[in-house]
């Protein structure tokens, strides 16, 4: 009595293993490239999100500049150092005046670029000095350019950030409602 045996021969198995090995080697070559490209794309998305968040913070401050629920004196907006430092004033507590630099509830604000980082300080009327807080994380992002330009009531904010070897520039316009 004869039994039919079905299956692969040794030669067929060796050929299948050889084809599989070639495919695995090919995939192994492209996997590091794919992972590196994925990392670059992730960094670019994070950079874009970080710049958008900072830009929105700056836009909000620029829209507020000049607000006063009474009689306020002094310039509501001062742009210095070729646009890389902006000094603003607004009546945050609506008490009808801008509280000065030495006041605990000062209505004076500043934003500046320093050493590749965007910084902010409350209670400041000068672009120099200490006590400024970073708005960006130096471990992740280097700000290459921060610039504010004014055309009447319209203000342009331009930020250029860099992560690893990727650089991205974001530009936006905002209207200073109280200027």
UniProtKB/TrEMBL annotation:
Source superkingdom: Bacteria
Keyword Ion transport: no
Gene Ontology biological process: protein secretion by the type II secretion system
InterPro entries referenced in this protein's UniProt entry, alphabetically: N_methyl_site, Prepilin_Pept-dep_B_prd, T2SS_protein_J
Keywords attached to this entry: Membrane, Methylation, Transmembrane, Transmembrane helix
Subcellular location(s) per record: Membrane
Presence of keyword Transmembrane: yes
A Pfam match: N_methyl
Membrane topology: Single-pass membrane protein
Spans through the membrane: 14-36
Record PROSITE patterns: PROKAR_NTER_METHYL
GO cellular component: membrane
UniProt protein name: Prepilin peptidase-dependent protein
Lineage: Bacteria, Pseudomonadati, Pseudomonadota, Gammaproteobacteria, Enterobacterales
């Amino acid at each position: 009595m004869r039994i039919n045996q079905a299956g692969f021969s040794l030669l067929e198995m060796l050929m299948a293993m050889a084809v599989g090995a070639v495919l695995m080697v090919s995939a192994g070559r492209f996997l590091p490239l794919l992972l590196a490209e994925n990392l670059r794309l992730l960094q670019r998305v994070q950079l874009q999100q970080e710049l958008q968040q900072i830009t929105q913070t700056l836009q909000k401050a620029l829209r507020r500049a000049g607000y006063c629920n009474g009689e306020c004196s002094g310039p509501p907006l001062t742009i210095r150092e070729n646009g890389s430092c902006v000094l603003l004033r607004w009546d945050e507590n609506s008490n009808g005046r801008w509280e000065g630099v030495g006041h605990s509830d000062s209505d004076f604000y500043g934003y500046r670029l320093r050493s590749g980082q965007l910084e902010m300080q409350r209670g400041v009327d000068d672009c120099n000095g200490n006590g400024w807080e970073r708005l960006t994380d130096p471990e992740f992002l280097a700000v290459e350019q921060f610039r504010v330009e004014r055309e009447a009531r319209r203000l342009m904010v331009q930020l250029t950030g860099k992560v690893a070897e990727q650089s991205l520039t974001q530009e936006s316009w905002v209207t200073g409602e109280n200027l």
